[in-house]
Amino acid sequence: MDKSMQNENQDIAFQSEQEMLQFVTQQMVINKVSSFDTMTMLGERGVDTDTAFAAIEKVENNLKGVDRKAGRKDMLWGAIWFIGGLTVTLVTYSDASQGGGRYTVAYGAIIFGLIQLVRGAYNSR
After folding, report:
1. Which pLDDT score is estimated for 113?
2. Angle between helical axes of 49-99 and 35-44 (0-180°, round to 10)
3. Which of 20, 34, 67, 115 is most enclosed, with most CB atoms within 10 A?
């Protein structure tokens, strides 16, 4: 390799692991570049295959962790909506059955809560 090629590779090399992980995250999350293409880009920047694979795997695992956290949050809010809708329905039904009158079936909150709960369970796997 001639001297000009060495200087060029040094200019595009990463200064730290954090800088490389930021690059990988930007490519995969923001630019929607595949893992394979991101690995190729890292190779073009002078990163060896093992290091590139490890960086991509680390970013992918972090992204899965974010999805799991969001899934648990969806499950919590789904349960709150479901229980709230069910509570409104049962309380108004109880009042209506004792003294006559109308009651409210909060089916919107119940259905929304169930959907959110199922979606959260799926995403938290």
Report:
1. 96
2. 150
3. 20
- Cα separation, 125 vs 121, whole angstroms: 7
- Burial readout 5-15 (b: 16 or more C-beta within 10 A, e: otherwise): eeeeeeeeebe
User: DSSP assignment, residue 32?
Assistant: -
On whether the CB atoms of residues 27 and 58 are closer than 8 A, the answer is no
Question: How many C-beta atoms surround the C-beta of residue 31 within 10 A?
Answer: 11
How does 35-65 read in b/e, with b if 16+ C-beta sit within 10 Å?
beebbebbeeeebeeeebeebbeebeeeeee
- Residue length, the chain? 125
Q: Cα(4)–Cα(15) distance, rounded to whole angstroms?
A: 19
pTM: 0.58
How confident is the model over 54-76, as pLDDT tens digits?
A: 888 888 888 877 778 889 999 99
